[in-house]
Amino acid sequence: MTRTPRPPVIAGLILRFWLSQEAQESLVGDMREEYVRRAGSRGFAHAWTWYWRETLSAVAAFGGRKASTERLKGDPYVRSFFSDLRIGARTLFSAPLTTTLSIGTLALGIGAIAAVFSVVNPILLRPLPYPDPGALVFVAPLDRNNTPNNIGFATFDDLRRDFPAFRESAVLSSWQPTVGAGNDAERLNGQRVSWNFFRLLGVRPMLGRDFVEAEDAPGQRVVILGHGAWRRHFGADSGIVGRTIDMDGAAFIVAGVMGPDFQNVASPRSEIWRTMSYATSQPWACRTCQHLRMVTRLPDGMTLAAADAEAGVAGQSLFEKFPKEYAGPGLRVLSLKERMTAPFKDALYVLFGAAALLALIATANVVNLQLGRAIEREGAIAVRLMLGATRARVARLLFAEGMVLASIAGVAGAALAWVFVPLFASRLPAGIPRLSTVAVDAQTVLLLVAFSFLVAITVTLAPAMRMDAGRLGGSMRIARRVIGHGGTMLRRSLVIGEVALALMLLAAAGLLSRSLSALLAVDAGVDSANLVTMEVQSTGARYDTREAILENHRQIVEGVRAVPGVIDAGFSNQIPLGGNGDSYGIRAFDKPLDNPNRAPDGDRYVVNPTYFSTFGTRVVRGRAFTDADNRPDAAKVAMVSEQLAEALWPGENPIGKRIQMGERDSPWREIVGVAENVHHRALDNAATSQFYVPEHQWSQFTDNVIVLGVRTAGDPMQILPAVREVIRAIDATQPIMRVRPMTEVVSTSIGQRSLALTMFAIFAGVSIVLAAGGVYGVLATAVAARSREIGVRSALGATPGRLLGLVARDSAWLVCAGVALGVGGVLALSRFLTALLFGIQPNDPATIVAVAVGVALAAMSAAIVPAMRAARTDPVVVLRGD
Amino acid sequence: MLGDLEQLVLLAVMRTGDDAYGVRIAEEIATHGGRDLTFATIHKALERLEEKGFVRSRLGDPTPVRGGRAKRYFEITAVGRKTLRAELAIIRNMARGLSLGWDTP
Fold first, then answer.
1. Facing residue for B66 by CB, picked from A33, A57, A60
2. Across residues B70-74, what is the average pLDDT?
3. Nearest to B38 among A23, A32, A54 (CB)
4. Residue A824 — φ and ψ, nearest 5°?
5. Residues from chain B contacting residue A1 (CB–CB below 8 Å)
6. pLDDT of amino acid A486
7. Mean pLDDT across the stretch A790-808?
8. For A37, A247, A767, B38, which has the most beta carbons within 10 A of its beta carbon?
9. How confident is the model at residue A274 (pLDDT cuts 50, 70, 90)?
10. Residue A627's pLDDT band (boundaries 50, 70, 90)?
11. Which residues are CB-neighbours of A741 under 8 A, at least 6 positions away?
């Protein structure tokens, strides 16, 4: 037998579903015969298109006209259910406006919940993408405020050697090498990791090999590339393995390349790794050199609690052995997953809650719309019941209708989610782990199906419950005169609920928006307007001496300051609000501590003298550095932030006091000035403490990457090309990286909140429209139902004003009840927002009152049209209708 | 009265004779009438014609190329023939004498 080409399967199913047995036999037979002929003579693509055109035409001509139930063979229940679906679809589309509204509304709700779920699910809910992820933990010593801190290498070394629970451990630190040169240079985000890091996670490189233990020794320069960096900088060349690459003026051997699906939850943005290569003999590997994070894979079967207990014992014994090296005995074990998701958890869950509220409002609205229709159709349902249909049969018919409605809305909602999720994900802060895996996936679809099913049941339930043969018989007798009375209570309750839910969402949006303005009003300690920042690196052989680097920095500042339009230029070793953990313990000469590790920390800012005027950090006491300070042989000076001054010398004048930072043999420096506090971690974090040292006096090491700030008279981005040119003229090979206006740095630091606000604002906007629509729907039906009564009143002499009042009273009752309930809801639930709020209480009265008034006004305005209609009622027209 | 489409289909049924089923009818209309109609349109017209009693149909044997579906053969009835003739006569009568201006638009 020769194989005949088969026409499109889906078209076949559609035809089967929509066409009667009779039409199928001859028509579909003809179509098929012609399809085979056309596929043979004119090609498959032509035949395919042709068949689809024929199918659509057939459905248009014959579809759904014949309610034949015989054609679906098999279980009679299934058969009649399919026919129910068709009847349902037809009934729905006989009321296109209500149906379109219902579908649109539901699609919005479903889309919102699907979108948020597809973000929340991979980030918060799914297990980490490693074998036995539950055994992966962070081990962290507690600092003097009992918060988990980084760990020193020597401590890690003791833990893995002496305590069986921590035998399989690795440490990580951040590392940012520059690859490429000149214009193509990029400063990569990377990590230094213990040689067994990947093995411990349970992952292997895609190309090449993993690190080996010998490569973790001091002096070793071996890297594993991330997939992204490999593609961007090495053209996805698989021959790279085993070769040597130059980074920061040193040669590194490439051991391997990680696959594209490797997700590094401990540092999501990292795309290059080198071995730690520490030894306990090195000065930066000490116990107090707390700049590492420690990851452990717990032994089989050990619980988190057991590990934490063992950590407690270990911490105690270390503290007893080295009482001056630790702030205290505290040592904690923290679940890797929880630790990674903690910063985003609240925001994402709250968003999910908001989406759920929106979906709830949408469902209520649709139930409302459908209930309105069910009441209109009461006569038809009564006829069915009278003719002997069981209640179950009629309920099934209604359910089928709900299913059709919910499925179409589900598909539309999924489409919405599919469009908006990538958009949404692209706006999430880049530091969120596993952001790349955010997508509308099978689990989301499953949720959609479940949710649609629930909606179908909900939408059906209300009308179905109202079926009562006796009562419906009554409603049949008096025909349609009294429509609108039945179900009124339910519909009104639904509208009250909608108003309440909309108010809750709006209140949340209001609170978030006030938080955001409060945040933006926070004095970051930097004047971000007209300020652009960039990283410039002195790299290559010509910068192998400290003097060369310092001279380069000096020339850059001098050159950039001379660019027309530039007001000032200055630099520091790190960017304010960047949140780098480059901090040192600060000891005051006149306040010696028993345990030096209980000294307050300060962020290290090694700056040039023009730093303060460029970045707009005010000097509140004393003076800023001068050129005279910025010399290696000048008297050792420092500046501190207000907060650090207050911590070291409460109530005293810090000018002239002496401090020492870091190692105990480092020089004592005299404080010459106090600067305002900088919100180094982020705007919403409490200000941290800073200390400032002139660049030429910081002799421990030389920062070859500086963050250059350029303050301009106008838009800094306009002057940028001239600035770049000046820097290139000094040395064309030095990379200029991460060029960002300071305003962008600020907005990134509040990204999570502004995203939450945007989402809430959208959800709240949609919800208030839906709620107003609900109010309108109920009142419009009510007015229509009472038109006779209103006509009689009007005939008896009621003025339009009084009639208006009649309807307005009705709506005022609905709205007030809704607002009251909503305010109650806000008071009960707004505490879940606390983590996202800033400078405002979750039950802030001003916000709640403003939102309540706004919601009341919006809802009342929805009542205007029906009220006006009532007021204009012409008694003659209405009464003639009888 | 017959619609324009119905005339076309009826004529095609007559022209195809014993072989008057969907595919052949469509082919006939396409080659001689120059009109590319979908099967649904043709079957719709045939359904109307059958309701009016102008054609009758019978099912043939199922064939594999049709996915096991039978052909429906159509045949013009006496009434159909008479009506069609009358319709075409009307057209001819109406068109007669217009031949002078026939070719100029």
1. A33
2. 89
3. A54
4. -60, -45
5. 64
6. 52
7. 81
8. A767
9. very high
10. very high
11. A528, A531, A532, A533, A716, A717
Average pLDDT, chain A: 83
Nearest to B23 among A25, A34, A53 (CB): A34
| CA separation for the pair A435, A451 (Å, rounded) | 25
Task: Report whether A224 contacts A272 (CB < 8 A).
Answer: yes
| Cut 0.80: pTM above it | no
User: Do A157 and A277 contact (CB within 8 A), yes or no?
Assistant: no
CA A410 to chain CA mean position, Å:
23
The beta strands (E) that lie in A339-430 are given as none
In three-state secondary structure terms, A436 is helix
Question: Is residue A54 less than 8 Å (CB to CB) from chain B?
Answer: yes
Element (H, E) at A312: helix A304-321
C-alpha to C-alpha distance for A400 and A641, rounded to whole angstroms: 69
* Burial label, A442 (beta-carbon count in 10 A; 0-12, 13-18, 19+): exposed
Query: How many CA atoms are closer than 13 Å to the CA of B37, on its beta-carbon side?
Result: 30
Give the chain A residue whose CA is nearest to the CA of B73: A26
Confidence check: pLDDT of A485 > 60: no
CA angle (A216 as vertex; A229, A540 as ends), nearest 5? 50
Q: To the nearest 10°, the Cα dihedral for A813, A816, A821, A827?
A: -170
Share of chain A above pLDDT 90, in %: 27
SS3 A396: helix
Answer yes or no: do B38 and A25 touch at CB < 8 A. Answer: no
Whether B105 shows a pLDDT value over 60: the answer reads no
- Axis-axis angle for helices A800-829, A488-520 (nearest 10): 60
Distance from CA of A405 to the nearest CA of B (A): 28
Please enumerate in sequence order all residues whose Cβ is within 8 A of that of A795, keeping only pairs 6 or more positions apart, or say none. Answer: A875, A879
ipTM score assigned to the predicted complex: 0.87
A53 CB within 8 Å of a chain B CB: yes
CB A755 within 8 A of CB A426: no
Residues of B in contact with A24 (CB under 8 A): 69
**Which ranges of A466-616 does DSSP label H, i.e. alpha helix?**
469-477, 488-520, 546-561, 611-615
The predicted pLDDT at position A552 comes to 94
Residues A334-364 as b/e (b if ≥16 CB within 10 A, e otherwise) read bbbbebbbeebebbbebbbbbbbbbbbbbbb
Q: A49 CB near a chain B CB, below 8 Å?
A: no
Give per-residue burial for A743-752: e unless 16+ CB within 10 Å, then b.
eebbebbbbb
Q: Using only the alpha carbons of chain A, give its radius of gyration.
A: 35
- Give Dmax (Cα) for chain A: 106
Confidence of residue A478 (pLDDT cuts 50, 70, 90): very low
* Beta bridge pairs of residue A740: A533
- Hey, is the C-beta of B22 within 8 angstroms of any chain A C-beta? yes
Q: What is the pLDDT of residues A351-373, one digit of tens each?
A: 888 888 888 888 888 888 877 77
Please, are residues A577 and A524 in contact by the beta-carbon 8 Å criterion? yes
A4 touches chain B (CB under 8 A): yes
- Measure B105 CA to nearest chain A CA, in Å: 34
Distance (Å, whole) CA A852 – CA A569:
50
What are A321-332's pLDDT values in tens digits?
Answer: 988 888 888 899
Nearest CA in chain B to A57: B40
C-alpha span between A61 and A31 (Å, rounded): 14
Buried b (16+ CB within 10 A) or exposed e, B13-27: bbbbeeebbbbbbbe
DSSP state of A292: B
Residues A615 and A557: beta-carbon distance below 8 Å:
no
Least CA distance to B40: which residue of chain A? Answer: A58
- Give the one of B26, B38, B72 whose C-beta lies nearest to A26's C-beta: B72
